[in-house]
Amino acid sequence: MSMTAASQGAREGNLGRVAFLDAQNELPMLEVTTPWSTAELYLLGAHVTSFQKRDEPPLLFMSQCSRFVEGQPIRGGIPVIFPWFGPREGMPQHGYARIKSWELKELVHSPDGSVTVRFRFPQCPESLVFPPHTLEYAVTVKDTLKLQFSVTNDSAEEVFTFENCLHCYFQVSDVTAITVAGLKGVRYLDKVARFAEKMEQNDAIRIASEVDRIYLDTTDPIEIADPRLGRRILIEKEGSASTVVWNPWTDKSQQMPDFGNDEYSRMLCVESGNVAANEIRLAPGQTSSLVVNLATRTL
Ligand code: TA6
Question: Measured from the CB, is residue 226 less than 6 Å from ligand 1?
């Protein structure tokens, strides 16, 4: 990586620092350093590729085989999914927001040492087929990671219907050794069983095969307990009615060229958004905000 611009925000007295780098494949990346943590954010997809608290393992998983190419999704970190979730005939899976470069709108250095990076999505041909809208995405780096994805319907008369999701890849010690809590009693669509509708029976979900579930009408926080790392990952959300839990396991891993065959054992996706029956129907002039707060605690 080469430093292409003097570090900004490193003015005297600011505890948070931001460096602009030409990173993977010379793609522009912001490296954020705070008293508690470091983070990496690419303009491509406004993609958070890394967040790590001092003296802790990385919070987010990043595939060693990920591509870093405009027009291709980055495999890991936090893909921003919009305006649809899943496949769409003749269009990129999970929408176009994650495969195009966003504009850097603002850097905010707070006196407490946190740094907020604000992105705005520029208009593109794909977005013109929808009602006029504005996308903004703010990432606040502190001892936690706060994500705020907002959509404003700029149309005077059209309702804007869309899906959104912050598709978080978490790094874990061993996916068979963790548990996921917070979804007991929640209805879900089981993609592994042809989207059969089921009800979660477990207080603590364990992963022992491919899991691909869309939990619906749930606003509760999720906790990933990782005894081998001695860590709990806490996922709190606002403005989200869906939680998706995904691990590709062996077969799917081998089918993904941008994902190592054995990487499934070190990751779990817990995604917060509004998908399927929870899609957003945004009235003219209204703004929808999806907020996710990620934190860790010792176990
Ligand atoms: O998050 C669940 C999911 O929809 C899975 O079905 C799988 O396709 C995953 O997203 C990754 O999708 P991607 O397009 O990034 O390969």
Answer: no
